[in-house]
Specification:
2 domains; Beta-lactamase; 18% strand; homotetramer; Transcription Regulator spoIIAA; disordered C terminus; six-stranded mixed sheet; five-stranded antiparallel sheet; alpha+beta; 15 helices
Chain lengths: 432, 432, 432, 432
Amino acid sequence: MQTPLPDYLSEVLTACSPDQEGELPDDIPELASADPGRLALALATIDGEVYSVGDDEVPFTIQSIAKPFVYALAIQDSGLDTVLQHISVEPSGDAFNELSLEASTGRPFNPMINAGAIAAHSLVIGPGADEGARTERIIDAFSALAGRQLSIDESVLESELENNHRNLGIAHMLRASGLLPDDPAEVVRGYAKQSSIAVTVRDLAVMSAALANGGRLVHSGERVMHSHVARQVLSVMMSCGMYDATGDWVTQVGIPAKSGVAGGIVGALPGQLGIAAFSPPLDPQGNSVRGVDLFQRLSRDMGLHLMDAEQPSHSVIRVIDEVADDAGEAWLVAEVFGAVRFSGGERVARRISGVPGIDEGGPTRVLLDLTAVHSLSEVARRMFVETARRLAHEGHRVLVLDPQGFTADADEPTIGDARVVGSLPWRRDAGA
Amino acid sequence: MQTPLPDYLSEVLTACSPDQEGELPDDIPELASADPGRLALALATIDGEVYSVGDDEVPFTIQSIAKPFVYALAIQDSGLDTVLQHISVEPSGDAFNELSLEASTGRPFNPMINAGAIAAHSLVIGPGADEGARTERIIDAFSALAGRQLSIDESVLESELENNHRNLGIAHMLRASGLLPDDPAEVVRGYAKQSSIAVTVRDLAVMSAALANGGRLVHSGERVMHSHVARQVLSVMMSCGMYDATGDWVTQVGIPAKSGVAGGIVGALPGQLGIAAFSPPLDPQGNSVRGVDLFQRLSRDMGLHLMDAEQPSHSVIRVIDEVADDAGEAWLVAEVFGAVRFSGGERVARRISGVPGIDEGGPTRVLLDLTAVHSLSEVARRMFVETARRLAHEGHRVLVLDPQGFTADADEPTIGDARVVGSLPWRRDAGA
Amino acid sequence: MQTPLPDYLSEVLTACSPDQEGELPDDIPELASADPGRLALALATIDGEVYSVGDDEVPFTIQSIAKPFVYALAIQDSGLDTVLQHISVEPSGDAFNELSLEASTGRPFNPMINAGAIAAHSLVIGPGADEGARTERIIDAFSALAGRQLSIDESVLESELENNHRNLGIAHMLRASGLLPDDPAEVVRGYAKQSSIAVTVRDLAVMSAALANGGRLVHSGERVMHSHVARQVLSVMMSCGMYDATGDWVTQVGIPAKSGVAGGIVGALPGQLGIAAFSPPLDPQGNSVRGVDLFQRLSRDMGLHLMDAEQPSHSVIRVIDEVADDAGEAWLVAEVFGAVRFSGGERVARRISGVPGIDEGGPTRVLLDLTAVHSLSEVARRMFVETARRLAHEGHRVLVLDPQGFTADADEPTIGDARVVGSLPWRRDAGA
Amino acid sequence: MQTPLPDYLSEVLTACSPDQEGELPDDIPELASADPGRLALALATIDGEVYSVGDDEVPFTIQSIAKPFVYALAIQDSGLDTVLQHISVEPSGDAFNELSLEASTGRPFNPMINAGAIAAHSLVIGPGADEGARTERIIDAFSALAGRQLSIDESVLESELENNHRNLGIAHMLRASGLLPDDPAEVVRGYAKQSSIAVTVRDLAVMSAALANGGRLVHSGERVMHSHVARQVLSVMMSCGMYDATGDWVTQVGIPAKSGVAGGIVGALPGQLGIAAFSPPLDPQGNSVRGVDLFQRLSRDMGLHLMDAEQPSHSVIRVIDEVADDAGEAWLVAEVFGAVRFSGGERVARRISGVPGIDEGGPTRVLLDLTAVHSLSEVARRMFVETARRLAHEGHRVLVLDPQGFTADADEPTIGDARVVGSLPWRRDAGA
C-alpha cells in the first residue's frame, strides 16, 4: 500500500493556478532568465520521510533562504551573545534590501534582511576567517543538513558578483559602524557564494526539517546544532522571515518561513515538518507568488497554523484502574504516551491525584507506565518524580515502569519510596 | 495527593527577585499609586484547571490586555474583512502610544497599539452602536471568558478619563482618515471603560486559556468565538503583542502575549495553557518588569517556547501486530490517540503501509482503532479514510473502530470496502 | 503719466495659462465649491503702494496663510523663548497635515505645519486666554496689518468646524505632550476661526509687506511688531513655508512664502515687497497651481530671487573731491545714500581711506554727508563714527553732515575731533 | 587712515570665548590631532577686498565645504536638469553622514549631505571621466576661485582613504540605484581628494565671495560660473547647508552657509560678502563650535541676516526739479544710483509720475540720469524704457542719460520719442 500523501500533494500542486501574476527578478540576469513555469513542493518529516511533487529535482539557487541557516552557523561559531551584539532580532517593517539599521545601536534590525545576513556571514567561523574557509564551512554545513553534497551554481554566482553594489554598500556601512571587522568586499563575495548554492525543494525541505527537529538531522538523528540555536532561528523566521509581509504571513500561514529571490520558500513547523516550495515569479515583496499560494493551501488544508488551538498537542494518558498482575492483584495503571512537556505532566499528576479512591480508599497499587513516552521535558520529569514520591509517601505501593530511564538517575532505582523498574513481566509488550 | 504544580509555581514566584527595578506609570494617577510589591501568577489549562500563587485575588485593571479580547469581539461582530480594512496586522516597531498609521493606507499598524485598539473598540457591535451597548457587550463577553461577573474600577476609570488626551488625539485622527465612523469622544470613553475592567490573574489566565482553547470556554467547553478568530488574535499577539520589545520576546519567551500598564501580562499557548502574571512596576517599554521575568522563567523551566522542537507534539500511534479476537484470529491493530492533525495522519498512513507483511504476505486482518482520538483534522481524516480504502481495495480485511464517528459520513458504515464500526465486543474498553 | 507696472502685472496674469491642472480641496465642502477660474495678483511696496490685477476684490479665506502672522503674535505675546519651547523651527519634509512632532522633544517641527500652528494659536495672548479674546486679538491684528477691518467668513467657518477631526487629533496630542495647556476643542475652534478670516490679494500683499518692512505697517509706518519678530517669521517662511516642496521653492522662487488651501499664496521680500496670488485649484502638495506659476514668473522676470547676487544691494557712496564752500575752500565730499548696513559702511570707510592725498597730502577738508541715508545699521554707524574720528585724529578737518542725527548721541555735536552738523548753508538742498 | 574693519574683526575674535566646548572628530586620525586652539576669521567683499584676523594663514582641509563648489561644477559640466535627476534639493533633517535617499526616487536628498555630494562629484566633467581628470578639474576650479594655486594635503588624504567605508557604502548604494555610473571606489577616492584640498580662511572667504558675486571672481570680475548656478548653490546652502541644525541657523544667522569637519565654515551673502571662519572643535551636529559663534556674532552685530528688512536695499533715486542747463532751461532731473531691480524701477516710475506738474503743468523737460546705475535688471530696464516712452508720448521733452547703454539697443538712440544720450556736457561729472 502507498500512503495517500503524494496524491494529496499532487492535488495541491494542481490546484495552484498556473496563470498567477508575478515577475522574475530583473536585477540578476541569471535569475531573470529562469523558467517561470517551474513548480515544486516538498515535505520532510522530522523522522526523515520526504514527499515531493512537481519539479522536485530541478536545482535553483538558495538565495536568501541561506540566511536562517547561516545565522545558525554564526551563533554556533561566535556564540549568541556576540551575534546579538552585531544583529538585532526585531522586525523592521522594511523591504528586504533596505539598509534597516537600528537608530540607537547601528545594528541591522534582524538577520533575515541583507544587512543582518551579511553581518551573520562574517560571524561564521569568526572575525578574520578567510573567505574560502567560510564558504567551505557553509557548503559543508548545508550539505550535511541536506544529506547530500551541494555546490555553487557558478553562472548565477558570476551574475551576482556583477550586480552586488547594494550589498557592497551595506557591507561598507557595517564596517564603518564597527559591526564588520573583515574586508567588506571579501565578505560580500562570500555572501554571494552562500546565496548561489544550488538546491532542490527536497534539499530545502530536509534542511528546514532539521530546524523543526531541534537541530538534529532528520535522516540520521545526528545533532548538528544546539536546540537553542534552532529555536532562535525559528523565532526569527517567525517574526521577520517574510519582510514587510510578515504580519499577513503570520496571521494567514502561521509557519516560520523564509523566501529566496530565486523562487524558493521554506517553512519549518517545530517538532513536525520541513516544507519547501519553488516557483520563480515573485510578488512585489519579493516572495514567490505561487510559493505563497502553496503555503497558504497547505496551512489551511493540513491545519499547520502554529496558532491553531487544535495543535497536535496533548501527550496522552490512559488511566486504567483495574489491571490484574500475575498474582491477581489489581493495579491502578497510568500509561503515558508521546512527547511529554509541561501540560502533559500537569495532566498526569492531576489525573492520578483525581482517581477515585486514591485519597480515601487506603493504600493502592499504582503503576506509572512510561514505556511509550518518547521525550520528557525537565519540568514534566520533575512532576512525574514528585507525583510518584508523594504517592509512595502517602503509603501507596508505586511502580514506575521506565525502560528508557527518563526518571531515574543512573542506578538509583527508587524515587522516594516508589520503585522504578525497566520491565514488567506480567505486562504485555507495547510497541510505541 | 496534591499535584506538585502549586509548589512549583510558588518556587518560581519566590525566585523572581523582589528588588528589580521598574517604575509605576506616571500618567494615570490611580495607577501611579499602586502597591509596587504585589506579585501574582496563574496558569489555566484548556480543560479548566487553574493554578495560582501570590496576590492572586488582588484585582487590578486590565488595561491593554483588553485589546486582544476586544479585537476578537470586533472580528466576531463586524467580520474579519471589515476589521482588516480598518486595522492592519503588521508589527510597527513603535512604542505603544505612538500613532503608528501605515503611510499607504492610513490604517493603524495593528490592534495591539492604541490606535488599532481604539479602531477595534469601535467595531464591537458595529458602527453606530452606542457607547453603553458596547461597554455592556464587552463586560459581558469578558465575564463569560473569565467565568465570573467582572466590573469596572470606577476610580481608575475616572483617572483615565482625565488623562486621555492622547487617545482622543488618536481617535480624532482616525475619524479624520475615515476609519472611525463614530463620535471620537464617545469611542474613547468606551475605550477607557474597557481598559478599566478589574481582573485578577486567575481571571486573565482563564480568559487567555479560552484563546489557547480555540475560542471555547475552558470551564464549560462552550464555544464563544470561532476558532479562526482565536487564531487571528493569537497570531497578532505573537507578532505585535509586546510593542517594540516583540523581537526579544519572541526569541526569549516564545509565547503569544499581551501586557497592560497596570502590571498584568497574559500569554496563551495554543492548545495548552493560559498564563497570567501581575506586578505593577514597568520597564521602559511599558511591560511589567517582574511579569516579564516570570514569563521568561516559566518558558525556560516549563519548556513552553513555541519554537521548541520538543513540542507536546505527536499524536501517538501504537501498532500491535498480534492481537487475537474472540474467534482466535490474529489482527494487526493500529491504535491512534490524541489530537490528530497532518503529521499524525501522515505517520499512521506510513506506519501501516510499512508493517512487514502488509504488502507481501497476502491478505491480513487490520483494525484501525480511533477510540482514543479526541480530534481529527480534515487532512488527517482524509488520510485515514484513504488508507483504509486502499488496504481494503488491496484485499485486506479492514475494520475502523470509530465510536465517535470521525470518519464515516452519517449512516454510511463503509469506507470503500472497509467496515466502520462503533464498538468491538472483543476489545477491552479503553479510557482515553 | 501712469506707471507701467499695472500693465506688466496684467501681462503676467495673462501669461499664466488658465488650463493648468489642479484640484479643489475636497475635505472642506465650502472650499470645494469655490470658483476654480478666479485669478488675482497683488504687489505692495514697503512704502505703501499697492498694485493689483485680476479678481483682486474677491474675498477668500486666509487659511494657512494666517500661520506666519499668528506665529508673530505668539512671539509678541508669549516671547520667543516660550514659543521655541513649544514649537521648533526645522523643516519637516512632511505634508502639511502630518503630525510631525520631533522625536526628542515632542515639539511640532515648525509653525507652518498644522501642529505648530495650533500650538502658536494657543500662545496668542498666552495660556488660559479665552477663545473669544484670542479671536478678537487676531482679527484686530490682521485688520491693522491689512489696513481695513477684516471679518470671518461664517459659512466657511461652519464647514471647517464640521471637518476638523485631524486638527482636534493634533490638539489632543499636543495637550497629552504638555505642549497645549488649554482645552483642545476650544483652541481648535479658535484656530478654525483664524483660518476663516476673509481676505483679498490686496489685503494679503499689504500684510506681507509689513513683514518685509520689518514689522512696520506699510501705509503708516507704524511699528506693529519688533523687527526681530518679523525676521523670525520670514526665516521660518523661507525654510518651512511650502511644506515638502520647500527645496524646489527655495531654488526656483527664492522668496519666503506661505500658501493656503483656499488658493492664496503670499511672499515677502525683506526690505522690498509683499506679494499675494490667488487661484483655488491646488497641486498635490496643497499649493495653488497657478499661484506657484505666478510666483515663478514674478521671481524670474522681476529678479526677486533672494539668492540672486544682483541684489538691490549697495548703498551708494559718491566721493567728490573738488567742491568749494562759500569761502572758496575745496572740500573732499563723500555723499552716502540709502539704507546702509555693513557692506555699505565698509565701502565708505574704504573709499575714503583710499582717496588720493588723504594719507599723503597733509591736512584736508572732509565732508561726510549723510543727508540721503535713510537707515544706518549699528555696525555701519560705528564704522562711520570711527572713520570720522580717525580722520580728525590724523589732522584732517572733518564735518559730518547728519541732519537726521544717526551718528551723534543727543546734544554732543562732535565725534572725536570731527564736528557734526545738521545743515550746511553752502550746500544745495538734496531730495533723497 | 586705516579702515576700522580689521580692528572690529579682532574684537569679534577676542569676544569669541576660547573655553567653549566641542570635540575634534575622532573618525579621521589626522583631523583628531588638529590644534584645537586655532581660530581665524575672514571677510571678502564682492569687489575683492579681503579682511582677515587670527590664524588666517593656517591651512586646513576644506572637507564638506567643497560640496557647494563641486555642486556648482557638476551643474556647469552636466547641466542642471541632469544634476536634479541625480540629486534632489530638499532638506533631509538628517545628520550629515546619513544615507538620506528619497523614498520615491532613490535620489540623495540634497548635495550638502555625503550621498548627494558623492553623486555631484561624479557629475563633474561627466560620467566616465577618470578620477585624475576630475581631481584636476576641481583643484583648478578651486584655485581659480581662491586666486592662488591650491593643493591636496596628502597626509589628511591618506587618513581619509583609510577611513572611508561609510562613503564607499554610500557610493555602492548609489551605483545600485543607477545614480552613479562610475566605479564607486574610484569616485570615493576622488571625493576624498576634493575633501583634502588645503585652504585658509582667506581662500574660503574669497571663494564664497564669488558665489555672493553671482559667479564672478572677486579679484578680477571674471565670470567662472553662470549666475543661475551661483543662485542654485546659494539656495541649497540656505536650506540644507547646516544639516539638522538648518532651522536654527536660518533663524539665528540667516546666511547661506556650509561647514566642514576640519572646523571651517563659509557663508555667502548674495551681492555682498563671502565669510569664512575656522576653529577645529565641533558640536554634536558636526559644525565648528566657535565658527558658529563667530557667525552668530557677525550676523547680529553687522546686520547680515538675509531676512532683516533693513536690507542694504533700495537703489536710490534723487529727483531734483530745478536744474538749469547751459541754456538756462530748467530740467526735472531724476538721478538713479546703484543696482536697480524691480523695486528700484517701480520707485523711479512712481516718483516721476508723482512729481507735481508732470501731469498738469504742460510739457516739461525731464532728464533721467542713469550714470550712477551699476546694474539694471530686465524688469527695471523695461520700466525705465516704458516710463521714458510714456513721458515723451505725453509731450514732455525727455533725455535719458545712459552712458553705459543699459536702456538702448545697439545704435538706436531713442526710446519712443525720448532721446538717449551717452553724455551731457552741462552736467558735472559724477563718480559713483
